[in-house]
TrEMBL record:
SMART domains for the chain: AAA
Membrane topology label: Multi-pass membrane protein
The protein's name in its UniProt record: ABC transporter ATP-binding protein
Major localization class: membrane
PANTHER family xrefs: ATP-BINDING CASSETTE SUB-FAMILY B MEMBER 10, MITOCHONDRIAL, ATP-DEPENDENT PERMEASE MDL1, MITOCHONDRIAL
Every ABC transmembrane type-1 domain range: 51-338
Length: 613
C-alpha cells in the first residue's frame, strides 16, 4: 500500500501540525472553555480536593526528614555534633526511630491523600463522561451529518477512554511529584540560600526542553486524534454501505483511504516519540549539571567553613531526591499532553455551539383537545453550503386530516417532514401546530406533540418490552400488546419464545424490516401524539409486506393530523389532500380525484405509476 498523498494532510511530522482542518469537525474547546468546565465540575468536590492537597503536601514535607537526619549523622560521626539532643549510640538509635516514624507517617498520609484525590478525579471524570454522551445524543442530526459520525464516535469512545486512563494514572502522581519538588527546593534554600541557585540555574534548562516539547506535542496529539476520527468515519461508512462497496468493487479504494489515515496516525506517533526522547535527553543533562553544581558549591562552602560536611550531604541527598519527582513529572508530560488533547475534544462536544435546542420553561404548549391543525408559513430552508430546498412555502393541513406529499426525489418532501417534526431548525418562516409556534415548544413537548417515522426504523438492543417502554415508561403489558396488535404485529409477537421478554436487536432476535417498522409504529401509538409524520415509513416492506404495513400505518394516523410522504402513489389515494412538490414548492394540491381530472403533472405521474404496476 502506498501513501503518496501524505503531503496533503494538515497534520505532518515535518512541521508544527496545523489543526485548521478541524474547521469542519466538531468544536475543539479552547483552554478557557476547558478550565471553565473543569472548575464547574470540581466545585461540588472542593473540600475533598483541598483535603487531598493538604495531605500530599504534608507527606512531601515528611520526606525531607530522612535526608536531613542523614546529614546530621555525618556531622555526628565526623565532628561529634549532637543529633536530636543526643550523642553517640543513643543519637543513632533516636535518629533511626525518627526516620522510621517519618517514613511510615509519610506513606500513610500520602496514601490517604492519593485516595482522596483519585476519588475526586473519578467523580469529575464520570460527570464529564455523562455530559459528553448527553451532548452527543442531543446534537442535531444535521450537525452530525455535516461533520461525520466518526468524529463524534471517536470523541465519545477513544478520547473519553484516553482522558480517563491518563488522568487516573497521572493526576495524583503529578500532584505528589510537584509537591515533592516544591518542598525539596524550599528545604535546600533553608540549608543555605546558595544551594537554591542551582535550582534557579536549572529552571531555564528544564524550561527550554519542556517548551520545545509543549510547542509541538499537543497539536501532534490533536492531529493524531483527527486522523483516528477520519479512520473511524471511513470504517463506519464502509461497513454501513458494505453491499454497495462490494457491488461496485470499491474495496481497494476504501481500504487505501482508511490506510492513509492509519499511516498518518502512525507517522504522528513516531514524531511524538522523537519529541519524548529529546525531552528526556534534556532532563538527564539538567540532572548531571545540577548534581555537579551542588557538589561544587558545597566544596567551596565547606572550604570556607560556612557549612558542615553534613549540610552538604543533606543538600546532595535533597537534590538526588529531586531526580524521581522531576523524572515523574517529565514522564507525565506525555500522557497529560495526550489527555489534554482528548480533553479539548471531549469538552468540545459539551460546549458545541447550538448543539441542543434551548429549553423554554414557560412554553404555552399545545391547546387541549383532539388533533390540531398544522400550518407552515413562508418556510425557507437550505442545507449548509447547498441549494435552497424549500422556497417560501406556505400551506395548511386541516385538523385530523391526512395530507400526502408526492414528487420526485429532491423535491423537498423529506426536508419539509423533518422541519414539521422539529428534526431540523427552520431557516426562515415558522411551523404552527394548533396555532402554537413550534419553536416555543420545549424538546419534550415537541416530542410528545409530533412523531416522525422514517424508513428503516431502529430496534434498540434489549427486550421487546424495554424497546416499547421507551415511548411510554408507565405502560403495562396489556397496553403494549394492544399497540402491537393494532399495527399487525400480534401474531409474530405471540410466537416469540419469551414474548415481550424476548431480547431483540443486534444480540437477540433479529427483526426483519417489516417487524422493525411495526415496532416503531407501535411506539407511536404508545406516545399517542396529535401530529404524525410518516416519511416513506412503508418503503422497506417490499412487495410481500407492503399491504400489511400500509394498513398498520393508516391505523396509526387515523384520528390524528398527519403528513404522509408517499413512496407509492397508491398510498396517496387514501389521503384527504395531496401536495405535489417540485423544487421546494407545492405546484399542485387537492384530492386524488381532483388532481387526476386536472390532467396536470400529478395526472401524468399517476398514469406512469399505474402503467408500471
Amino acid at each position: 500500500m502506498t501513501h503518496s498523498n501524505n503531503a496533503a494532510t494538515p497534520c505532518t511530522h515535518q512541521h508544527r501540525p496545523d489543526v485548521s482542518a478541524a474547521a469542519d469537525a466538531l468544536h475543539v474547546a479552547t483552554g478557557a472553555q476547558v478550565r471553565s468546565t473543569l472548575i464547574a465540575e470540581l466545585q461540588p468536590h472542593l473540600v475533598r480536593f483541598g483535603a487531598s492537597l493538604v495531605l500530599l503536601i504534608t507527606g512531601s514535607a515528611l520526606g525531607l526528614v530522612t535526608p536531613r537526619l542523614m546529614g546530621g549523622l555525618v556531622d555526628l560521626v565526623r565532628d561529634g555534633r549532637p543529633l536530636l539532643g543526643h550523642t553517640g549510640t543513643t543519637a543513632v538509635w533516636w535518629t533511626a526511630g525518627t526516620m522510621a516514624t517519618a517514613v511510615a507517617a509519610m506513606a500513610l498520609i500520602t496514601g490517604f491523600g492519593y485516595v482522596l484525590m483519585a476519588g475526586t478525579v473519578e467523580r469529575v471524570i464520570a460527570s464529564l463522561r455523562e455530559r459528553v454522551i448527553a451532548g452527543g445524543i442531543g446534537m442535531p442530526a444535521e450537525r452530525i451529518e455535516e461533520v461525520g459520525v466518526g468524529d463524534l464516535v471517536s470523541r465519545t469512545t477513544d478520547d473519553v477512554a484516553e482522558m480517563t486512563r491518563a488522568v487516573n494514572q497521572s493526576l495524583a502522581s503529578l500532584a505528589i511529584g510537584g509537591f515533592a519538588v516544591l518542598v525539596t527546593v524550599v528545604g535546600m534554600a533553608l540549608l543555605d540560600w546558595r544551594f537554591l541557585s542551582v535550582a534557579v540555574f536549572l529552571l531555564p534548562v528544564y524550561a527550554v526542553f519542556v517548551h520545545r516539547y509543549r510547542r509541538y506535542a499537543p497539536d501532534a496529539y490533536l492531529c493524531q486524534r483527527m486522523e483516528m476520527a477520519q479512520r473511524a468515519s471511513g470504517i463506519l461508512a464502509s461497513l454501513r454501505g458494505l453491499r454497495t462497496v462490494r457491488a461496485f468493487n470499491l474495496q481497494s479504494s476504501r481500504r487505501v483511504g482508511i490506510g492513509d489515515h492509519s499511516w498518518r496516525a502512525v507517522e504522528l506517533g513516531v514524531w511524538i516519540r522523537i519529541l519524548i526522547n529529546r525531552l528526556f535527553g534534556g532532563v538527564n543533562l539538567a540532572e548531571y549539571m545540577g548534581m555537579s553544581g551542588v557538589l561544587v558549591i558545597g566544596w567551596f562552602l565547606v572550604e570556607r567553613g560556612e557549612v558542615s560536611v553534613g549540610v552538604v550531604t543533606t543538600a546532595t541527598l535533597y537534590f538526588l531526591r529531586l531526580f524521581q519527582p522531576i523524572g515523574m513529572l517529565v514522564i507525565l508530560i506525555d500522557p497529560l499532553a495526550s489527555a489534554a488533547a482528548s480533553l479539548r475534544r471531549v469538552v468540545g462536544v459539551i460546549v458545541e455551539p447550538d448543539s441542543r435546542p434551548a429549553e423554554i420553561v414557560d412554553a404555552p404548549g399545545l391547546p387541549p383537545g383532539s388533533a390540531p391543525g398544522l400550518r407552515v408559513e413562508h418556510l425557507t430552508f437550505s442545507y449548509p453550503g447547498g441549494r435552497t430546498v424549500l422556497d417560501d412555502l406556505t400551506a395548511e393541513v386541516a385538523p385530523g386530516a391526512v395530507t400526502a406529499l408526492v414528487g420526485a426525489s429532491g423535491a423537498g418532501k423529506s426536508t419539509l417532514g423533518a422541519l414539521i417534526a422539529g428534526c431540523r431548525p427552520v431557516n426562515s418562516g415558522r411551523v404552527l401546530i394548533g396555532g402554537t409556534d413550534a419553536s416555543t415548544l420545549t424538546p419534550g413537548q415537541r416530542a410528545r406533540s409530533v412523531c416522525l417515522i422514517a424508513q428503516g426504523a431502529h430496534v434498540f438492543a434489549g427486550t421487546l418490552r424495554e424497546d416499547l417502554l421507551l415511548a411510554r415508561p408507565d405502560a403495562d403489558d396489556d397496553a403494549l400488546i394492544d399497540a402491537l396488535r393494532r399495527v399487525g404485529a400480534g401474531d409474530w409477537v405471540a410466537a416469540l419464545p419469551e414474548g415481550l421478554d424476548t431480547v431483540v436487536g443486534e444480540r437477540g432476535q433479529v427483526l426483519d424490516p417489516v417487524e422493525a417498522q411495526q415496532v416503531a409504529l407501535a411506539r407511536v401509538l404508545l406516545v399517542d401524539p396529535p401530529v404524525v409524520v410518516l416519511d416513506e415509513a412503508t418503503a422497506e416492506a417490499g412487495a410481500g409486506g407492503s399491504t400489511a404495513l400500509e394498513e398498520a400505518a393508516w391505523n396509526v394516523v387515523r384520528g390524528r393530523t398527519a403528513v404522509v410522504i408517499a413512496h407509492r402513489l397508491d398510498q396517496a389515494v387514501r389521503a384527504d389532500e395531496i401536495w405535489l412538490m417540485e423544487s421546494g414548492r407545492i405546484v399542485e394540491r387537492g384530492t386524488h380525484r381532483k388532481l387526476v381530472e386536472q390532467e396536470g403533472a400529478y395526472a401524468d405521474l399517476w398514469a406512469a405509476w399505474s402503467r408500471g404496476r
